[in-house]
Write a structure and sequence with these properties.
mainly alpha; 0% strand; elongated
C-alpha cells in the first residue's frame, strides 16, 4: 500500500541510524512490527493474574510464530 505522510526529517534520519536500516520502508516496517509486538506484550501483562493461564510449551511457540 502506498501512503504519503509528513515525517520530521531529523527524527527519520536518527531513527534510521539507530535501527541500522538503509531505507525508509525498512524503518517503517521495523517500527510498526516493534509497536505491535510491544502492545501485544502490554496487553498480555495486563491480563496476567486476572485469568487462569494454562499454556503449554507448544502454545507459547505457536504464539511466537504468530507474532512474526
Amino acid at each position: 500500500m502506498r501512503s504519503t505522510i509528513d515525517i520530521d526529517d531529523a527524527l527519520l534520519e536518527e531513527a534510521m541510524k539507530l535501527a541500522h536500516v538503509k531505507t525508509k520502508r525498512e524503518l517503517i516496517q521495523l517500527s510498526l512490527s516493534e509497536l505491535v509486538r510491544q502492545k501485544r506484550r502490554e496487553r498480555l501483562r495486563s491480563k496476567l493474574g486476572k485469568t487462569d493461564i494454562e499454556w503449554t510449551l507448544a502454545d507459547l511457540q505457536e504464539m511466537r510464530r504468530d507474532e512474526q
